[in-house]
Design a protein that fits this description.
The chain is an alpha/beta fold. The chain is built from 7 helices and 9 strands; from the N terminus they run αααβαβαβαβββαβββ.
Length: about 230
C-alpha cells in the first residue's frame, strides 16, 4: 500500500484534475505536467522545509495519474458483456459499475453524476452496462432495482447505491461523491461546494464555472425506484 499523500500534494492534484476536466484537456502532452514547482506554489507558497519531499511525491503522483488516464480511467466506459465487467473488476484496484436501463430517466440522471465524478476520480475505473445484457451478473449480484451502482476494491464489493436511496433523486454530484467516499470506494472528497449540473453533465458553480460539490445531503422526495423485473 502506498504512503498517504501529503495534504498539499493531494490538494494540488485535485485542483489539477478539476482544471483539466474544465478545459477538457488530456495527458498526451508530457509538458503539461512538467512544472511541478508552479503547481505546488499555487497550492501553498510557504512550505520551503518540505519542498523537496513534496516535489518528489507530486512528480510520482502525476506519473501514476497519467498511467491511469491512458488505461481508460477518467471517463465512464460503456460495456456490452458481463465478461468485460468481471474481467475489469478482477484486474483493477478500484472499480465502479452502473447497471442501467436505457429507458429509465433515473438511470440517465445517475449517468450525469458519474460522468461528473469520473474525470476527477481517476483512481477508480467507471463502467456502465445495460442490465438487460447482464442478466446473469445482475442475478448473481442481486441487482433488482435500477439504477444500481456497485463499487469494488481489489475485486471485493465495498459499497452499493440502489436507486438514490439515502441521497435523494434531487441530489448533486457531490452527494453521490460523499456516499462513495463513505463506502470506501473513492479515496477522498474532491469536488467543491454550491454547484449544479451543467448541460454537458459537468459540475458547475452558480456563475457557470466548473466547480462541483461536496457533501450536502438532501432528503429523498419519493420511493418509486424503477424495478426492472
Amino acid at each position: 500500500m502506498s504512503a498517504p499523500l501529503d495534504p498539499v500534494v493531494a490538494r494540488t492534484l485535485d485542483t489539477h484534475l478539476l482544471q483539466k476536466s474544465q478545459k477538457h484537456t488530456t495527458d498526451d502532452d508530457p509538458s503539461s505536467d512538467s512544472d511541478t514547482d508552479s503547481l505546488l506554489d499555487a497550492a501553498d507558497p510557504i512550505f520551503a522545509s518540505h519542498r523537496a519531499a513534496r516535489l518528489q511525491q507530486l512528480s510520482s503522483a502525476l506519473s501514476a495519474q497519467k498511467t491511469l488516464l491512458f488505461s481508460s480511467h477518467g471517463s465512464v466506459t460503456t460495456l456490452s458483456s458481463e465478461k468485460e465487467v468481471m474481467d475489469i473488476v478482477t484486474s483493477t484496484t478500484r472499480t465502479l459499475a452502473h447497471f442501467y436501463h436505457p429507458d429509465f430517466h433515473r438511470c440517465a440522471i445517475m449517468d450525469r453524476h458519474l460522468e461528473a465524478l469520473a474525470p476527477v476520480h481517476v483512481e477508480v475505473r467507471f463502467l456502465r452496462i445495460d442490465a438487460g445484457k447482464a442478466a446473469w451478473l445482475c442475478g448473481r449480484l442481486g441487482v433488482r432495482v435500477l439504477p444500481c451502482v456497485v463499487g469494488w476494491v481489489d475485486g471485493k464489493e465495498v459499497t452499493r447505491v440502489v436507486g438514490f436511496e439515502g441521497i435523494g433523486e434531487g441530489c448533486k454530484s457531490g452527494d453521490m461523491e460523499a456516499a462513495l467516499v463513505r463506502g470506501g470506494l473513492l479515496v477522498r472528497d474532491k469536488l467543491g461546494t454550491g454547484g449544479t449540473l451543467g448541460e454537458d453533465g459537468s459540475a458547475m458553480n452558480k456563475n457557470g464555472a466548473y466547480l462541483g460539490w461536496k457533501n450536502k445531503q438532501k432528503e429523498r422526495g419519493d420511493d418509486d425506484d424503477d424495478d426492472w423485473d
